[in-house]
Amino acid sequence: MELRQLEYFLAVAEEQNFTRAAERVHISQSGVSAQIRQLEHDVGSPLFDRSGRVVTLTTAGKALLDHARDAVAAVAAGRQAVDEVGGLLRGSIVVGMPAACTVTGLFDALSTFHRAHPQVEISLLEDTSDRHLDGVRAGTTDLALVGVPGPPPPDLDALVVVSERLAAVFPVDHPFAGQDRLTLADLTGTPVICMPAGTGIRTVFDRCCAAAGLTPTIAFQASAPATVADLAFRGLGVAVLSESMAAEHEGRLATALITDAVAPALLALVWKPGSNPARRQLVDHARRIFHS
């Protein structure tokens, strides 16, 4: 049983005429008849009643009809999927990422995607999470890695890649040295160094402080986590970062978990629902990298 035989079978069944079926599939009537006879031989039963003016399905033909349609449709869907991937060679994709932030997993996903589809033009945009979310919703950004305070926005598809707590980072000779846990209230009496408004970490910090009725003193703001840590290293205040960001400076700076900042800081890939072959392929690469 071959695909072309099933295609010819469907043409005859729907046209109820061998001549019209042959015209539909663009081969001779004798070619269609020969392939149908071969199909009938393969299945071991006549599929058409040819005795009348109109060709009709036999009981066996009716039993085969839905399965033939499913098989032809499945092959067509497979071809379409391959065609979409082939179309990526002339495509482009815009990816948003946190400003001045090194996210190794995203870079690895971009690398494997580029090797698989070298003709896709990839544009990277650095900005705050709020602006990336606006760009994704507007359709100007195809996919963005953003920090979000709590669950990702329900109107967007998302892949959460990191979920972690906030940490305070300070010099090893700071008065907090030796403490591995602090509270938000502890930070209200000291200058705080934080990322700017619109970033996921800053939003989590601001919301936790507001919920506790606290107003911290933001002494410095910087978009790059390394800069935030460097300012803390120079004694200009206590930095607020995520646990993994803080861990990058272990030994150089001391770190304490902020115990009552219970809302996690999430890092997630977000995209607008809908069909986009390039984006779908990049998300697949990201899933394999981040969840490996």
Q: Describe it for me?
A:
This protein is of the alpha/beta class and 292 residues long. The chain folds into 3 domains: 3-87, Winged helix-like DNA-binding domain superfamily/Winged helix DNA-binding domain (Arc Repressor Mutant, subunit A); 92-157 and 271-290, Periplasmic binding protein-like II (D-Maltodextrin-Binding Protein, domain 2, 3-Layer(aba) Sandwich), CATH 3.40.190.10; 166-263, Periplasmic binding protein-like II (D-Maltodextrin-Binding Protein, domain 2, 3-Layer(aba) Sandwich). Helices cover 45% and strands 23% of the residues. The chain has helices spanning 3-15, 18-25, 29-43, 59-87, 104-116, 129-138, 184-187, 200-211, 225-233, 243-247, 277-290, and strands at 48-49, 56-57, 92-98, 121-127, 143-149, 157-164, 166-170, 181-182, 191-194, 217-221, 238-242, 254-258, 265-271. The protein has a 6-stranded mixed beta sheet. It has a 5-stranded mixed beta sheet with strand order 4-3-5-13-6. Strands 1-2 form a two-stranded antiparallel ribbon. A hairpin with a 6-residue loop joins strand 1 (48-49) and strand 2. The longest helix is centred in the first third of the chain and has 29 residues, at 59-87. The protein is rod-shaped, with a radius of gyration of 31 Å. 32% of the residues are buried.
